[in-house]
Fold:
Amino acid sequence: MEVVRIFVDTNTFEGLYTIRYDGEELDEFERLFDLWTDAEYVREYLRSNQQYLKSDYFKDLFLDEIETEILDEAEELERLLERHATDNDIGNLQMLFKPLNNISYVIPPPLEKTKARIRDRNKFRKGILRIYALRLGKNTFVVTGGAIKLVREMKDHHDTHKELDKLEKVKAFLKENNLYTDEDLVFYYGRF
Structure:
């Protein structure tokens, strides 16, 4: 497993990182956006998960509408992540990444599990895509994976459940390498 820079301030080391899992050619960030911007992949994914599209959450949408929303949302989400990671005038990544637990209102613990998604209901009706990450600082997150979220609870779909496992594996890896804060990344990258 390797921590890879995505959008990072070279002076402060704050920003967005991702994981490249052992044996994988692409890091998780690149892999997700390659899939989410591939119309054929998205269409097949939705077809193979049609039973989830019958829920109240999706009942008013046709398959092609959901597909278009996912493709558009992927483009917007990637753009937002880059802007929030690199442009201090519009805020920071903490504005996009929220605690995985929707009712968490405490000071974030080290390596807090988070999710980012589109929240702009004017542009995107549902906000289906999720990026999962661990927080290392106010403006520093390590992406562990992501999903096309078709269910309310992550435990209710095999793909989102798998993302919970990935969060735990990466958290263990970061602990093993003493990576708890953005400052720790300075020393981590100093080893290369």
User: Anything to note?
Assistant: The beta strands are 2-8, 15-20, 97-99, 113-116, 129-137, 140-148. Helices lie at 28-36, 39-48, 63-86, 158-176, 182-190.
